[in-house]
User: Fold these one by one.
Assistant:
Number 1:
Amino acid sequence: MTVIPLYRQEANPQAEVCRSCSVRQFALFGALSDEALDTIHTRIATVEFEPGAPVFDAGQRGAALYTVRSGVVRFERVNERGDWRITRLAGKGDLLGAEALVQHRHADAAVACTPVVACRIPRELVDELSAQQPAIVRELMRRWQAALDDAEDWLAELATGSARRRVLRLLLKLAGLAPPGEPIWLPKREEMGAMLGLTLETASRMVSQLKREGVIQRHEVGHAWIDLPVLQEAAAREDRLE
Amino acid sequence: MTVIPLYRQEANPQAEVCRSCSVRQFALFGALSDEALDTIHTRIATVEFEPGAPVFDAGQRGAALYTVRSGVVRFERVNERGDWRITRLAGKGDLLGAEALVQHRHADAAVACTPVVACRIPRELVDELSAQQPAIVRELMRRWQAALDDAEDWLAELATGSARRRVLRLLLKLAGLAPPGEPIWLPKREEMGAMLGLTLETASRMVSQLKREGVIQRHEVGHAWIDLPVLQEAAAREDRLE
DNA sequence: CGAGCCGTTGAGGGGATTCAAGCTCAGTGG
DNA sequence: CCACTGAGCTTGAATCCCCTCAACGGCTCG
């Protein structure tokens, strides 16, 4: 993990970094005015993570929250039997680690899937702002509800039906996480298995089949081109027949 | 649904109903003082639901939140393919419908599984109290995080592994929802299927097998006696081998 | 250029589904 | 009072999809 405190970026005035942030309008502090932002940016740091690096571990005491500026982060946990399961994904604009506000330990781990750039926000800062700015509280609640909805949607769409259906639905979700016009991030087959409750071999077979059908095209390692209408049509067809 | 406004319960003074509430210490307003409670109880109503009756429907505008006083409620949704999936359960002390505070429509439906008694709290009341009492906001956040953790746990424990493992884990969860010393609620096999991502026939086979093994004993329709240590041991053994 | 990770593919077996039939049991009405 | 009814549960048999085990190939990196 690389940390770049914003107040050290002298060539790039601090206030400007936060003000012109590409995810500002989607982020937790999107509701804050320029003036309010000016008073807090010195306490926010830019952090970067390599693929596989943890943003935080399960069981760890949460001291900060993170806003994703770019990249994809997975939430994972190991069940009582020892199975590794990925339960959710986060992308640009999403908030990680809000549980630090209400309980000490993270119930699951957050791990970078691609190179990730994020803003690290100390827990105390959010606490202080919540007390002053009701909009922040409302935004926090909105995000909690969105995460809950996401988790339930994940269960209903990615843990239900045939292996082919699940892989197609996952690809649709990944397409929503990728910047428009760029190739989508294609997880390792083992990761796909942990997301979908399948073995890596089954995931591989489904991906290979979809490549042969032309629904996805290989781009680089871990990335693929998709034609969204074709993918949507394939997913809809899969759901239609029986 | 039966509604009994508290202010009509003349034989039972309103303030007393809230003050002596059996779930008060677990409930959203558990943080409020007797004095604070006295100012709001007239706006809270007791509501009752028969098994199968919706507390609210998916897509409905949420005008109220509910605190469960007794019984079990399921959250359910239908995925894009049309599969019915149950994503979570709520029991005594749990809060339903908090999404009414931050968005208009419910993403999933909440349906009574057993006879349910709940407190209906108007959305505006929670809004007002949140503005005055920071403890309420904190409690709301804590509950949101708990629900999110619950949903991820559900995915990791109930949507992973063999059918036998899933049924055992479900029974453990149901044991936690039942009042101590009473028989647990045993869902219909079709409901079990919707919870576990299995067919009702497979759920039935697993339940029958566990009955033959003596892990559970039939009590009445829809209820069963369990011996918790025996169940825990069976679940642990299942997870241990392979 | 070899080592290791990752992905692919095959063959075989097994567990869940599908389809179907019969059962239990509570509620209903003659 | 009890046959009737229907919803829910159980069980069987056949099928199929996914898992397991295994081998191999490609790619990256030291």
Number 2:
Amino acid sequence: MGVAVENIFEEYLSKRPIFSNKDILSIKYKPDNIPHREEQISTVAKILAPCLRKENPSNIFIYGKTGTGKSLSANYVCKQLSNISEKKDIPLKIIYLNCKMGKVADTEYRLIAQLSREFGKEVPATGLPTSEVYKIFYELIDEKEVITLLVLDEIDRLLDKCGDEVLYNLTRINQELENAKLNIIGISNDVTFINNLDPRVRSSLNEEEVVFPPYDALQIKDILKERAEDAFNNGVVSESVISKCAAYAAREHGDARRALDLLRVAGELAERTGKDKIEEEDVDLAEEKIEKESIEEVIEKLPKQSQAVLYAALLLLKNRENKEPVYTGEIYDVYKSVCIRTSSKPLTQRRVSDLIAELDMLGIINAKVISKGRYGRTREILLCMSKEILENVNKMLKSNLGL
DNA sequence: CGAGATTCATGTGAAGTATACCTTTAGGCTTAA
DNA sequence: AAGCCTAAAGGTATACTTCACATGAATCTCGTA
């Protein structure tokens, strides 16, 4: 036994590694060069430039689908800006917050609390009146004469969870401040978001608008090539592998993040199977694996009750032949029996209805409100994952719930 | 036969409740002079 | 007397429940051609 394991390690070390620097393919990696976004970047930079003369720049609204380089470009410009401001001793503070569900900034209170924390003041997670937290924040920000740029990523999530009050307050904050100035860069992948806003907020948030169009397959290829150069050892990736990744990603509204994930996971798979280069079939395997993992990751983090609801839904959907939908009522019944089996108290149908809507938002299931005429009104729930993933998720939920 | 009323099953909004946690305040205990 | 700790009071956010009303197309009803 010991010998066999030893052999694995020996063999691993003797092979020429696939990656020379895997981090370059990670989503967190911030390249110095962002291909095919020159125009957007310079637009944003021009809008923000007045910061450097201590003038208030316009608020910016950035939108584009996922994986079009929005956050990356925004961060890039901000980084450059803060470099210069530091060098020239210009007071400037940049805060980046993600408003995605479950993150630190997904409600009014949490957002303002997090902002205060960014200024170095600990704020409790609950218990304080929201107005109190606003007060803390106002005082913190107004302490010095600083221009603050607030980057709100996935700002649309913030809106549909707690309305536009926060944004209204934030866009108006400059009128209350003596010394400091606050500007907002909103990033959204929902274009319609801006239309659901209170007109006053809309006009002030939307002073400048920057659109990030999806990449086409060729552009994605460029991006991949550039990163692959440094991420892999020579001769590991072929042109055709990159083309394949690009093609798969372009198929999904030109999502560069996905393309990078594909390439990275394909590399990992090749490495694990002991190959010294990535083959096209690895890309196919990678695609499967990514889909599986990203769904499982989301589900794993779900609260128990949501998991139970999802489990009930999947149980029903599993037995449905080709794409027959399932309805809220049926799910609720199964959910209740799941609760009895796990001896936990079932939530009300009202709440379950909301949970189902949330699962839909997370993209785990596909729920749509429909009217069945005489037979009432309900959500029609469809599956949006493949059979194998379903099996896996099902198993996972089962053990998570203790069944 | 077709316009309008009816109906069902659940969506959805508002208000209330439980829980967990926060700050403030006042009392009680300790301590050191 | 000053300092420190504790517990109660008074307050909030969040997740959930309760109540009540809203929805919207299939189906029914009934007057009319």
